[in-house]
Design brief:
- Residues 119-129 have a biased composition (Polar residues).
- Keywords: Golgi apparatus, Membrane.
- Residues 114-135 are annotated as: Disordered.
- With 489 residues, this protein is α+β, with helices and mostly antiparallel strands.
- It has a domain at 302-316 and 327-485.
- The protein is 38% helix and 9% strand.
- The chain has twelve helices and ten strands.
- Helix 5 (248-259) packs across helix 10, helix 7 (332-345) crosses helix 12 (455-480) and helix 10 packs across helix 12.
- The relative contact order is 0.08.
């Protein structure tokens, strides 16, 4: 009985399914697609209806976590639809609380806000401001003309603001420890602070022969120094201002002190609002004794210089030169120090002014002046810029324009020709692993120069060049059997 009833109920369903499968394939596909679309429509309609109800509850009562929803705010359909796993919380904006009263404080007075309006200027006031502006522009143009065109050699700049934005209480020389690095003397530190922070009173222009004219700035005379009494160019303490392109003067000063040579004049980097658009430029301590008015430059040809090296002038500790040797008063050790220093910085203007020891560029001075063609007769090439100090046995390294963009395959080895001995202290620094550390500590003192080279990253690139040249120099020393001896007199 039961089986017959089941069969009777199953017969219409089986008959319908068999009839469905006997229909063509295209009609079956259309029926299935219609059923799927109908199901998808009702599913999306129910889903959107659910979230519309939830938005209504959010705007009417505030939103609570769905997991902890109140029974009266959730309808009966919410239990059927699954909740999303990420629960959203919204913090309602609360009222601003008054600050608590702190004991010991004073209640500030209430000040009325005053509306500031742009002041109206009368025609007389406007004309006055325009006249002052034109005068300021003319003064700056006159400064540029007097400085660069050389219309006057002595210019008084007291009427202008020579140190715009400078703070005399803050020095650009950074010495945070009680003592400066040991390679600086007390005089070096004093000179660096003077060059970086001294108030400029007057500027004068001085020709330098083959080199561009040098601008000399004079500070307030605190007391005349013996170096400046021999020249009428400076009545107090002075400094020479170079071009921003010659900032290697500052690096050369620090390298000279780190190596223990002590033959360069103190130099720092400084900004002048009335020169070079405020770019940092080198400032070198003025020393009248190394100028033409003091001691003229040592005149030697390349052949005479090589004969001087062979004669080892003043090699024994004596006050006179060897007889019949054509020696100058310069001590033999000075040429060794000069050759090492010039090779590391590739300064060729002293010992190789005609650029005979390397491949010069078209923009180099020796090519533009045509002196490079004189390399065929090297013995008669005149050396330049060989300066002596008050002690005529010593040299002073001036105009230290080095080149950091010269590769190791184009170094000027002519600077080392004839040198058989080098200073032991300088070579030991080059051999040690402390050259970089010492140069970083030294150059960090000059904040202007440090920042102008791009900070630590830029300074490291310059030291990389010196370290590579130091390795080449040490290889040259070993290959040619050059001795290293103490040269501290």
């Amino acid at each position: 009985m039961g089986s017959s009833r089941f069969n009777s109920l199953r017969f219409p369903f089986s008959k319908a399914t068999s009839r469905f499968w006997r229909t063509p394939l295209s009609k079956r596909s259309l029926i299935i697609a219609s059923l799927c679309a109908l199901y998808l429509f009702f599913a999306l309609f129910g889903y959107s209806q659910h979230y519309q109800d939830k938005d209504k509850r959010r705007h009417t009562r505030g939103l609570y976590p769905l997991d902890n929803a109140r029974p009266d705010t959730v309808d009966s359909h919410a239990s059927v639809l699954p909740t999303r796993p990420n629960v959203v919380y919204i913090t309602l904006k609360s009222k601003r609380l008054k600050p608590a009263n702190i004991r010991g404080t004073i209640r500030p007075k209430l000040r009325r806000k005053v509306r500031r309006t742009q002041p109206t200027r009368s025609p007389f006031t406007q004309n006055k401001f325009g006249t002052l502006g034109r005068n300021a522009g003319e003064n700056r143009r006159n400064v540029a003309q007097e400085t660069f065109l050389g219309e006057t050699l002595d210019v008084d700049y007291k009427s202008l603001n020579l140190n715009p934005g400078s703070d005399s209480r803050v020095s650009s020389i950074r010495i945070y420890s009680p003592n400066a690095p040991p390679w600086f003397s007390a005089g070096d530190v004093k000179a660096m602070r003077f060059l970086a922070d001294a108030k400029v009173v007057r500027i004068k222009k001085m020709p330098q022969g083959d080199f561009p004219s040098l601008l000399i700035f004079e500070s307030e005379a605190v007391g005349k120094h013996k170096l400046f009494e021999a020249s009428n160019l400076c009545g107090g303490q002075c400094g020479g201002i170079g071009s921003p392109l010659d900032n290697t003067e500052v690096f050369a000063f620090h390298l000279d002190r780190v190596l223990g040579l002590n033959r360069t004049l103190p130099a720092v980097s400084r900004k002048f609002g009335f020169l070079y658009d405020g770019q940092p430029c080198p400032v070198v301590l003025w020393d009248a004794s190394v100028q033409p008015e003091g001691h003229p430059a040592v005149k030697l040809t390349w052949g005479e210089y090589q004969n001087t090296l062979k004669a080892r002038c003043l090699r024994p500790k004596s006050s006179s030169t060897k007889p019949d040797s054509n020696c100058s008063t310069v001590h033999h050790y000075e040429w060794s120090k000069l050759a090492l220093f010039d090779f590391l910085l590739q300064i060729h203007n002293r010992l190789d002014p005609s650029c005979c020891g390397f491949r010069p560029r078209h923009e180099d001075l020796c090519v533009r002046l045509g002196s490079h063609a004189e390399c065929g007769d090297q013995n008669h090439t005149q050396l330049k810029s060989i300066r002596q100090s008050d002690n005529l046995r010593h040299l002073v390294f001036t105009y230290n324009k080095g080149f950091f963009d010269r590769n190791e395959d184009n170094l000027d080895f002519r600077l080392l020709e004839g040198i058989k001995e080098l200073p032991e202290q300088a070579v030991s620094v080059l051999k040690s692993s402390k050259l970089r550390v010492k140069l970083l500590q030294s150059l960090f003192l000059d904040q202007r120069y440090w920042e102008s080279q791009g900070g630590r990253q830029g300074i490291d690139k310059l030291i990389d060049v010196i370290e590579r040249r130091a390795k080449v120099l040490l290889t040259y020393i070993n290959a040619h059997g050059i001795k290293t001896i103490p040269m501290n007199e």
